[in-house]
Amino acid sequence: MIDILEHINAVQREVSRTGETVSLQMRRAYRATPEELWDALTDPTRLARWFWPTTGNFQVGGSFQLQDMAGGDILECEPPKGFKVTYGGPNSFLEIRLHPAANDSTDLELEHVVTGIPMPGAGGALYVGPGWDGGLLGLALYVAGLPDDHNPVTFADSPEMLKFNEQSVRAWLKVVRDSGTTSEEDLLEAAKVSMAQFAPGVEL
User: Is 98 in contact with 38 (CB distance < 8 Å)?
Assistant: First the structure.
C-alpha cells in the first residue's frame, strides 16, 4: 500500500497562463543521483517498468512513442541534466530538469507548456496534471524498489491508483483556483472532466 497523501504532498505544483498558453510546473525530490534518474527516464526498458511501454531513439533529432498514447520529437537532450520534447503535438512541450542535491539525491523539475488547450484559462492543467502526478509517483516507487510483478499499465487502473488520482485532481483544482486564471464555473467544469477521466465514479 502506498501512502497517498505523502506522495501528493511530496510534489510542488504551479500553473500559469500567458494568453492561450498554459504552463504547468512540478517539483519533487528523489533519493537517487541525476545519473540514476536519467537512466530511468530515458531507457525504454526502465520506462516500461514504472511509466509506460515506450519506443524511440532518445537523442536530439530522434523521436519517441508511448504505447497507445502520446509521442513526440526530442528537441534538447543533455544527460544527465535534462531534456525537452514535444508531447502529443507541435504546440505541447515537455521539459525535465535534474538538479543534484545533498546525500546523492536529486531535485526533479517538470514543465509542460501547451498552447490552445480547449478549456478557458489554466483549467486545462486539470487535463494533464494528474497524469504527471501518476508519473512522478511511479518514478518514486521505482526508485524505492518495485516488486518484480509490478505492471504500470494494470496498476494505472487499480483501486489504489484511482484513489491517488482523486487526490491529485483535488490538488490541481486548488492550484488552478489559487492562480486566479480561470472562472469558478469553468474551473469546476474542467475538474469534472478530469475526475471522470482519472477517477471515474468519484464526485467532486
Answer: yes
Alpha carbons 42 and 134: distance in angstroms, whole number: 17
CB proximity list for 32: less than 8 A, separation 6 or greater: 40, 104, 105, 106, 143
Quote the CA–CA distance of 53 and 70 in Å, as a whole number. Answer: 11
Order of all β-strands in the sheet with 12-18: 12-18, 21-30, 105-115, 92-101, 82-86, 71-78, 63-66, 54-56
pLDDT per residue of the chain (204 residues) written in tens, 0 to 9: 899 999 999 999 999 999 889 999 999 999 999 999 999 999 999 999 999 999 998 999 999 999 999 999 999 999 999 999 999 999 999 999 999 999 999 999 999 999 987 777 789 899 999 999 999 999 999 999 999 899 999 999 999 999 999 999 999 999 999 999 999 999 999 999 999 999 999 998
What pTM, to 2 d.p., does this model score? 0.96
